[in-house]
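To: structure subgroup
Subject: Chain for Friday's discussion

All,

I'm putting the inputs and outputs inline so they're searchable in the archive.
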Amino acid sequence: MNTKRVMFQAAVGVALTVTLTGGSALVAGALDAGVTPVAEASAPVAALAADVVTLEARATTAALAAAEAAPVQAAGDTHRKDRAKPVGPVHCEDAQLTMDYVERPDRSTDATNAFDLVFTNTASQPCSFDGWPGLVAEDADGALLTWALTSGATSTLAVLPPNGGRAVAEGTADVPAAVGCAEATTDRLRAYISSDGAGGGIVDDVQIPVCIDGTWSLWLGPLTPLHGAPGDVTQPAEPQPEPEPLPAKCQDEQLGLEFVARPDRSADGAEAFELVFTNVSDASCAMWGWPGLVVEAADGTRIGWSSVVGTDGEPFVLANGDVATVFGTALTPKSLGCEAITADHVRAYVTSDGAGPGVVAPAPFEVCADGSSVLEIGALTAA
């Protein structure tokens, strides 16, 4: 028997009683690491329960489903105990995000269709999310067809800068014909980011085949931040040949960073600066796009963020000793009407998806003490 096949009648009974916490829930329902939502608050689960839960649900089947979920819960609980909760801006809400479904043929197989869900922050303030988005599939009438299970055991804080900051969750959809289940075609996918799934969800019109007989066929990973590097989320449908092969993308550990004040380009209420990146390694590397940038106090507390402007330009190569620059501006606390605090340093992320430790440079300039300062930065440019 296919181990993924679980009857809805028993599974929903378990889903309504299991503690929904990031990485440990049976169902992916806006699972924010460290947050324990109330099961009844999940509208998709409640709706499905009303449709399929019956008094004849066998206790033995429910016990089996709970036993299968228990090891995942234990792993998630251990992970949360082992790490301190990172500091970030306010929790993201459904209303401030858009979602795009992106096919990933490079990750697909004959039995699974891979995809990315790319979330974009359209608001003027940064937001953060640590965990798994909730995801349900609906038909043309808005009726629930199925929902997604969580994939992966750990998550990290994803910070979405304002006005276009992005994060991605990787997913897969099992091909119904390959697993031998009854199928239907979705009309749309609805994701939930707001705490406890309390928002209205974020919708994208998506037509994919899913199982509807109790075989779960959708799987979704945790949200991961992006930093504007083309090709990190999806490969172009028809890649254009490069004149010469590029070396590997630069990593944080290969670079040195200097923060340079630019009073000659500053204006009343806005201070200009440059970030100067130098390749201090022996190996050449490629750069493009925008670095991720945060402003930190001496103790590492994040007290400022960045948003990107302009276009990403063409990739370029940085040999040993070569320099790349980023131009930016920061509104002064006086112009923002906020209490001022002097930053200790900036931390820039160049490694793909912000996976590296960042590159640090002293930067003693004033930002808002409440952490609301947002620095505008342009793309990386060869000097």
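Points worth raising on Friday:
The chain is about 15% helix and 35% strand.
The mean pLDDT is 78.

D.
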